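User: For my dataset I need records formatted as: sequence, then structure tokens, nothing else. Please produce one.
Assistant:
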Amino acid sequence: MTDAQSSVAVITGAASGIGRELASVLAMRGYRLALVDVDAPGLHAHADGLRQRHGCQIETYVVDLSQPQAVRDLADLLRATFGEDLALLVNNAGIALGGSFEAVDEGDFDACMQINFGAAVQLVRALLPALEAGAGGWIVNVSSIFGIVAPPKQSAYSASKFALRGFSEALTHELAQRPKIGVTTVFPGGVRTSIARNARVSGDVDQDVRAQQVAAMEAKLTMEPRDAAAMIINAVDRRKARVLVGRDARLAERVQRLLPARYWSVIDR
């Protein structure tokens, strides 16, 4: 990955967590940034801070990725604005959705699939030609360790992350002989983000139970987002097709590989 000032990096989910830290790293490298998030105050505040610290050029886009037409409009705008200067697309935005399959609302399930998977596919489809043109570019798709193992009460989230994994791996193989473009698929484990706190849940969950569940989940989120971002950038620099972020992700992947039908009985101990 080059540090050319004319290169543009697009990052979804850029207002917090891993996306926020990726934006910080790329700003320090001199990239022009196109930052996308549904959280307008958080997005604008982070962009303003990066401009003040690094003097970089940043455009912000407040977009609800659960709306396919909004994603299409975003892609058209990015392509028209930046063209062949597009050098990096990071599909990082995602939401969690807890609850048993039967308890999860159908609309929430579909929104989870669209944000975590559908929007990434739409952006890749629209921006791939521009990314490959000029000096070339790269795609980063952020899946999850739950795109390798599938816990109970995570049917929507795991489905979306498994789908993103399958799409990314197939695309990696399709692009293998095209030297100016490629894909890195990222599988984060327990990174300290707000994903558990902001997770959607079925409407009948008791609030005290919900608070306990969030606290238990957040206790497992131990890696700092900046460390995860550093690992991802290193993987892109090295043109790695796959990166497991965190010791817990590496361990879960190993257990799944050894015990493909029984891994959860081991992991859940």
